[in-house]
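Holo prediction. Input below; ligand is protoporphyrin IX containing FE.
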Amino acid sequence: MKQFWRMILVISLQVLAIEGSHQRPPAATPAHATLNNALSFDYYMNSCPQLEQIVHNKIMQWIKRDRTLAPALIRLHFHDCAVRGCDGSILLNHKGSERKANASMSLRGFEAINDIKQEVEKKCPKTVSCADILTVAARDATLAVGGPFWMVPFGRKDGRVSLAKEADHTVPIGRESVTRLINFFQSKGLNVLDLVVLSGAHTIGRSTCESLQFRLSNYNGTRKPDPTINRHYRNLLRRKCKKASDYVNLDGVTPNAFDVQYYTNLEKKMGVLLTDQLLYSDRRTEPLVAVLASQPSVFEPQFAASMVKLGNILDHFNNGEVRLNCERINTY
Ligand code: HEM
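Structure of the complex:
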C-alpha cells in the first residue's frame, strides 16, 4: 500500500515538475496572489534590456575566481526572502540590520552583488532594484554550478527596513523541528514540497561546524551524540570540526555537484544539519525525500519551480524603492 502512495506521489511530482519547467511562475497562493501580479518577465524590457547579460557575465567572473560564492549567493537570496520578502533587506549594512544578525553570521556574496549593482547603475541608472539583482544572481549562480535554469520575473522593490532581531526571530538556523520549518514555509506561501525541494540547495555549499557541533556530543543534554547520524560519518565530522569556525560540506559525498545525493545522504543518516536529517524522519516529508532520492529527473525542474515561488515572496512591496547603493537606503 505504501508503495502505491509513493507511485502516486512520483506521478504528481512529475506533473508539477513539468508545469514548473514551462518557464511560467507557478500559481501563487491566495495570500500572495495580488502582490505577485506586480512582477513580470518584461519589466526591464525597455528600461534595462541588458540586465540579465550584465548579471550573467559578472556571476561567471566571480564564480570562476571563487566557486564557493555560488552556494553563498543562493543562500543570501533565501535569507533575503525569508525576512520581509525578497526586498534586498539582507544587503543593508548598518547597525542592527539583518546582516548583523546571528543568523547571518556566515553569509557571503555581498561584494559580488555590490559589484553587479555598480555595473548595472552605469548602464541603467536608478532603474533596477537590488532585490531583483540578488534574485537573478541566485539563478545564475545555480546555473553556474550545474543546476537548472528558470525565468525570473522582475519588479521587486528594495525595502527601507532591515532589523537583525527579525532575522534572528525568523530565519531557520538548523535546530528547528519539522513542524516549525513547515509553519515558517507556509507563512511565506510555500508548501511542504517547496520545503523539501529547496532544502536540496544543500546539495552544494558548506556549513560552519557551529551549526552542527551540538549533534556530535551531548545532544539534548544526553551526554551522547545525536543517534540519527551514521556512526562513521559522525566520527568523520568530529575530525573535521576541531573548531566552531571550521567548515564541512553540506553534501559529504558529491559536494560540488548539483544532484540528488543530498537526499540519498539523508536515507543513509548522513545529513549534516539536524533539520536536513529530520526531513527523513517525519511522515510529512520522508516520502518526498524518498521520491527525490530515487527520481533525479524530478529534482531540477521542481527546484526551479520552487525557486520562482521563493523569489516571488513580497511582504512589504508598497513601501519600497530602487536603492542606488545596495548597502544603504536612499536619502532624499
Ligand atoms: C529549510 C530550512 C533551512 C535551514 C534550517 C537552513 C540552514 C542552513 C545552515 C545552518 C547553513 C550553514 C550555516 C553555517 O555556515 O553555519 C546553511 C547553508 C546553506 N543553505 Fe540553508 N537552510 C535552510 C533552507 C535553505 C534554502 C531554502 C536554501 C536555498 C534555496 C538554502 C541554501 C543554503 C546554501 C546554498 C547553503 C551553503 C552556503 C555556503 O556554502 O556558503 N538553505 N543552511
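The mean pLDDT is 91. That is the main takeaway for now.
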